[in-house]
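Q: Protein A?
A:
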Amino acid sequence: MFVIVFNQNNLVPDGGNNQLVYKFPSSIMLTDKFISISNISLYYSWFNITQALANNTFTYTWTSGAIQTTYTITIPDGLYGIPEINGYMQFVFINNGTYWITDNGSYAYPFELILNASRYAVQLNTYLIPTSLPAGYTPPPAGFPTVACNPVVIFPQFFNEIVGYNVNFTSAYNQGNTYVPPTNPTQSQNYVSKDGAGTISYLSNFAPNVQPNNQVLFSMSNINNPYTSPSSIIYSLNPNVLVGEQIYETPPQFMWNKLIDGTYTELRLSLLGNNLRPLIINDPNMTILCVIRDKSELQVI
């Protein structure tokens, strides 16, 4: 049995930290050889929301007078849970002047995203924007609507998966507080409720996929497995730690994969996401041990 060590010295210097190349000291003939992952150590440092994944934007409207303006919220590349997304939304609201301040100094925003753990859903609450505020309140810098209304929130493709809503979900405008929620929604619809103050609440209608790449697929060059697609996948790793912590895994048993017979100068290991695209890993500190065995050692017929 032979051990091969992939670490950050083997990384292809393209900034992605997802391809490692092990170069043999000289050309080597590999015939009837099998390879397996032996040990993995790397940090949970890949983003769930990025421009590359096209899941970093959604829109909302604000009505000033009779003019409705659409704002785009563009989330910077990063690792976000729903509370962090909601916090960034509030930052955008303040920059856009689409907020107001109550008489006790609290900021009020046009809508929010929160976790609804009991329903295993993301809840969207949109609030009725009034035409005026009581004494002691600070009015929104962006101005009041002529007729009270709720912001219109739209979740486009890919971001919709993060929060568990259909593509291009659009919340109700509720102008004049006249919107009537549907009764007995189907599975393809969002559950909707409305209170007397004009607050409209929606729930995800499918399981939110907050981390689209919740596993790492290890792809090894020169593997030909006719039972998988792509044929090069030799292992799958699911993070069992918090974001930013070190993942350390030793498989309970070796999962042997046959190398294509031939002369080798190198082996290339790629780290892929669920979509089989290279996973952008931010922390290059990693060590991956592989072992190679001969067919006769495995007692493979």
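Q: Protein B?
A:
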Amino acid sequence: MQNAARNKRHYLEAKEAFNRGDLDACLAYYAPDHRVRSQEVPPGRAQIAAFLKASRETWGDLRIVVEHVVAEDDWVMGHCRSVALHTRPVMGIAPTGRRIEAAFWDLHRFDGAGLIVETWNLADQPAVLAQLKAT
């Protein structure tokens, strides 16, 4: 139970660091050999770093709101909401200035040191696209 509580805390701290715009602090919670399992990408922290950086570049004011988080043993599952203003082109759609919100779920496996070693993500992309195209 101790590891589960620590892993949940690390999950929440990583999200807080991302929201502060401190990507280095956020990445410190990921193991150097981290694997993104929801995509075909090579192993390594560089993959998650590129994803986080691209998210910030696309959605400059992006905030992650953690709705629910559950931890058990080495596993942490989060249900979150991403919130941002559409101020840059996204999916070929010119900026609308609208507030865009979408749910996502992420599952992480932690190692004995409390670092994230594997991640699975599922985002509600249809909701994003619908809001971008809304008139």
